[in-house]
Specification:
Radius of gyration: 24 Å
Strand content: 15-25%
Shape: globular
Helix content: 25-40%
Strand order of the largest sheet: 5-6-1-7-8
Structural class: alpha+beta
Largest sheet: 5 strands, mixed
Order of helices and strands: EHEEHHEHEEHHEHEHHHHHEHEEHEHH
């Protein structure tokens, strides 16, 4: 029995979900999807980046990821809405509920994408493409937004099919259709290939997915290593990954923040790093993980990025220990003069929490500090993040728990569904 995999992708998710909330929840008569509109952060707080765009805005040249001011120059009169992550979590959960009512196994890939394993359902659901179209229509009618659904025999090809013509479409890409539908595409369209790999392939005269597929795998492996093996197999439609409904643990934890004004002194920078470590540490402790490496990256007002990392004596989830390592990285990285607009902390080389092996260099009771952190986490999760904060945040302009993730996305707190 041939496997059947669906890939479901919400069309312009943040903008679509905002539009649906305005139409259905607030009684607004204007559909943001039908006019030039974007979802973007607060430009006055230097967070003005386009996160999602409508089709009319795209037609005017607006691109996801560009500064809001640039989008407004391209499209005068552009409607701008702020992101509402609590709403997005709610809508994502509604989507997953529908998918789990339809498919035996569902794997969430991101807040707006998922795979569904429909293998063995042909007798009850009928032809896979027709079943996918019924699912597409159900989502549209019940939830109010549109999706693209890719249909194939493995996750890779289903993902590729879902990225064909949008919006509100169903596309198939079974092995017998690869040569016709996938091979003529540019190499950038192959899942997993970035701009750097595209440029390197172009130097060897490889411009389409089909040209990767017929290339000598030994040649690709010699010049791209393991990635060369991956792109050769992927271009031929091979993928052994199964749809896994279990949520995988993070391989790393990180937060960054674009500050409202330039950071020009070490004390302020250390306070921002503490705010980031509070958030990342809480997320890591919830997953029962510890980090062995702490990295800091900084961006100046000319958008130049540099980073530095340190290895800890032993893996840790203690906020204070993580913060002190981050401060040492920062002090070694920053020249003390250049104004900074963004700081970030990344915790990597994570492993499950285990009993800490004490060393001759341990001067603190880290077990006590960890118990304290967990007690604080418990209080914050029960009563809100504002229930407890460190004294250094009381009269400053740095949030006690900062970072690119909203409170709703890092705590799971959202509207009832």
């Amino acid at each position: 029995m041939e496997p059947v995999i669906f890939h479901i992708d919400v069309n312009s998710a943040f903008l679509s979900w905002t539009a649906v909330e305005r139409l259905r929840g607030q009684g607004d008569s204007l559909d943001l999807r039908q006019v030039p509109a974007v979802i973007a952060g607060d430009a006055e707080r230097r967070h003005g980046i386009v996160l999602a765009k409508s089709a009319p805005a795209k037609a005017r040249g607006v691109q996801t990821g560009e500064p809001l001011w640039q989008a407004e120059e391209k499209c005068p009169g552009l409607l701008v809405s702020r992101p509402d992550y609590a709403l997005y979590v709610q809508q994502s959960r509604l989507l997953l509920r529908v998918l789990r009512e339809t498919a035996p196994a569902v794997e969430q890939y991101s807040i707006d994408e998922a795979w569904a394993d429909m293998s063995g359902t042909r007798w009850s659901r009928g032809d896979p493409a027709e079943a996918a179209d019924r699912l597409r229509q159900r989502i549209k009618e019940e939830l109010g937004f549109t999706v693209n659904i890719g249909v194939s025999s493995n996750k890779l090809l289903a993902k590729m099919a879902g990225d064909f013509q949008k919006p509100d479409r169903v596309h198939t890409l079974f092995p017998g259709e690869i040569e016709e539908k996938m091979w003529p595409l540019p190499v950038r369209d192959l899942f997993g290939i970035g701009p750097a790999t595209e440029r390197k392939l172009a130097r060897f005269g490889i411009h389409t997915i089909g040209e990767i597929a017929v290339a000598d795998p030994a040649f690709l492996r010699a010049r791209f290593g393991k990635q060369g093996e991956y792109i050769w197999h992927a271009s031929n439609g091979r993928c052994s990954e199964i749809v896994n409904p279990e949520t995988a643990l993070n391989k790393g934890y990180g937060n960054s923040v674009t500050t409202d004004k330039d950071v020009c002194d070490r004390e302020s920078a250390h306070r921002v790093l503490l705010s980031l470590c509070e958030t990342a540490g809480m997320r890591m402790r919830r997953d029962g993980q510890s980090a062995g490496v702490v990295a800091v990256h900084i961006r100046d007002r000319q958008f130049r990025d540099v980073s530095h990392q340190r290895q800890l004596m032993a893996p840790s989830s203690v906020t204070r220990e993580l913060w002190e390592a981050a401060c040492r990285c920062f002090d070694e990285l920053w020249n003390g003069r250049t104004p900074l607009r963004q700081l970030g902390v990344q915790l990597s080389r994570v492993s499950p929490d285990t009993a800490r092996q004490r060393t001759l260099f341990d001067e603190r009771d880290f077990e006590r500090l960890e118990r304290l952190d967990r007690a604080v986490d418990s209080i914050r999760e029960k009563y809100g993040e504002g229930a407890l904060c460190r004294a250094c945040f009381l009269h400053g302009d740095v949030a006690p728990m900062g970072g690119g993730l909203s409170k709703e996305r890092r705590t799971g707190i959202t509207k009832p569904v």
